Amino acid sequence: MSNDSYVVALGANVSLLAGDAEAARALMTKLAAKQDKSGAVKGAVTTITRSGGEALDVETTCSPCWLGCVNPPGGRGRKRDEVLEFDV
Predict the structure, then answer these.
(1) Is the predicted pLDDT of residue 66 greater than 70, yes or no?
(2) Residue 88: is it exposed, middle or buried by C-beta count within 10 angstroms (0-12/13-18/19+)?
(3) Are 83 and 66 in contact (CB under 8 A)?
C-alpha cells in the first residue's frame, strides 16, 4: 500500500465508489492521520497534474475522496472543521 497521500485518497475514492466502506474507512483514517494543524493533508509526492508545494497540498486536501471524508460511511469525519477551513 502506498504512503503517498494523494494515492491513498484516490484509493479511498475508488473504495467508496465500489461500496467497500471498510476499505474506504481504513484509507480515510490514514489520510486523517496526515492532516496538519492548518487542515492540509501532508505526505503527497505528486498528483496527476504533477503539482508541488502549496498546490500539491490543496489538490491532496481537496481531492474528491478527502471531501468524502467529511461524511465517511457509517460516521462523521474526525477533522471536518479543519478541512473546510483550509479549503476556504
Answers:
(1) no
(2) exposed
(3) yes
What count of other Cβ atoms lies within 10 Å of the Cβ of residue 17? Answer: 12
Q: HSE of 55 in the Cβ direction (CA atoms, 13 Å)?
A: 7
**48-77 b/e (C-beta count within 10 Å ≥ 16 → b):** eeebeeeebbbbbbbbebbbbbbebeeeeb
Round to whole Å and give the CA distance between 65 and 24: 9
> How far is 21 from 75, CA to CA, in rounded Å?
11
From 8-17, 36-45, 71-80, the region with the lowest mean pLDDT: 71-80
The set of cell numbers assigned to 25 is: 474507512
Model pLDDT for residues 7-36, shown as the tens digit of each residue: 888 888 888 878 888 898 888 888 888 888
